[in-house]
Design a protein that fits this description.
single chain, 167 residues, mainly alpha, two-stranded antiparallel sheet
């Protein structure tokens, strides 16, 4: 724990958590509005898609690069942690914007809630693993983290197909 407190990545991660929480609560309390339209979609949808695209591209790339270039693992982990927390911020803005919509425009949240639960699981298990906060549960955290990635991608596919009206 003491080494985590001395890590710049740890404090940047904490800052990203704080910013995410501020935006999430601020959207719920109607302090921030990301529902304005750009093109065919609301801005919060664009943010969600940007976050998703980062995860879609970065996660397989990270898994490949960390094995190929073992000597650069600290750099790759830093990009992985901060990049995915930034994606989590964007996806949280999208999710908070969806759940704060007025009753007459309230969306179907079935796959969205499942996605957000898996995002929270990924973020929590990744954070705990990266900074060694629950070392005695290291194998359990790793299992939850890696299997959640698989299910996140499956549910994202279902979410997208549902959103475009195929399912």
């Amino acid at each position: 724990m003491a080494s985590a407190l001395r890590s710049v990545y740890f404090w940047l991660a904490i800052l990203l958590f704080a910013i995410t929480d501020i935006f999430f609560v601020g959207i719920i309390l109607d302090w921030f509005d990301f529902g304005f339209v750009i093109g065919q979609y609301r801005f919060n949808h664009w943010l969600g898609w940007i976050g998703f695209l980062f995860i879609l591209i970065h996660v397989p790339l990270f898994v490949t690069m960390k094995r190929r270039y073992v000597n650069r693992i600290r750099l790759f982990l830093g990009i992985h942690v901060l990049g995915n927390l930034s994606a989590y911020l964007l996806i949280s803005i999208h999710f908070a914007s969806q759940i704060s919509r007025s009753p007459q425009f309230y969306p179907d949240l079935g796959t969205g809630i499942a996605l957000y639960i898996f995002m929270i699981t990924l973020v929590t298990t990744g954070f705990l693993q990266r900074f060694g906060l629950l070392n005695r549960m290291r194998k359990t955290l790793r299992f939850l983290h890696t299997t959640s990635v698989f299910w996140l991608f499956v549910i994202i596919a279902i979410h997208i197909l549902h959103g475009i009206g195929i399912l």
